[in-house]
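Run log, item B.
One chain of 312 residues. Sequence copied directly from the ordering sheet:
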Amino acid sequence: MNGDTLYSIGELARRTGLTVKTIRFYSDSGILLPTDRSPAGYRLYGIDAVARLDLIRTLRELGLDLPTIRKVVDREVSLPEVAAAHADALDVQIQTLRLRRAVLTTVARRGSTPEELDLMHRLARLSEDERRRLIGDFLDTVFDGLHTHPAFTAVIRSMTPELPDEPDVAQVEAWVELAGLLQDSGFRTSVQGMARDLAADRAPDDATGLPRILAEAVRALVEPALRDGIDPEGPRAAPVVGALRAHYAGIITEADDDVLRQRLAHHLDSMNDPRRDRYLRLLAIINGWPAPGSLAPALDWAVRALRTRSGA
């Protein structure tokens, strides 16, 4: 066929795979103008209409609206400009869908009530500024008066979630759950009490965080005892307890006596809040850090061993 060949709507439909109704709609909308009309008044289209319809179909499949498509095919705006703007809009839609999926997945897993669903949905939709205010309010509450304390500067920084600009589904789910913990008054009180107790025990020349030091000591001294199956109330636990007490006494530069044992047991017990463990796991997911191992079994063992030996 030569370039002067004209096609009826029916012939265009056969060549493009579109329905007659769709082509007529595009023609009535002014996106696909006829080249001529037959003696009977039927619309006729040139060969360029095939390429134009292919472009229209592609743009429609990508989600562009008809007014925008008309501007593109009429070259009122460039295709790259439209593509860039549409890609930005899709980014917003994708983020919204991720948030919705995260909320629904969490609701299904937890068997949430309608009230909890509403709360999680609102938490997921928080803006970056709103997220930062929520995080800042939590940290300001639990570390009230300790922000300039040298032992807690690094601790506060290490407890700050940083949701990336393009989080994956797991990070969004983790944020929704962690945001709930940030608003848990019981959890706030627990972390605040632990922080204040440990701040009071910090040695004058110690520039690091006591929570981290105690956690490292428990891992190093208690986890091997757990792996060896040592009973925390049995005689084989005594050397482990002695080493843990001596380590703690050295940190705070006080005598290793029964008062110190009770304080150490209290500190380790306050650290053994399952919500703290969960917070740290969620924090690792959000920040892209390696998943921390649970310290709960070792803390349980240490507290039992310490309290069994009230005068040891």
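Observations after the first pass:
- The chain has three domains: 7-77, 86-125, 130-308.
- Residues 79-110 form the longest helix (32 residues).
Flagged for discussion on Thursday.
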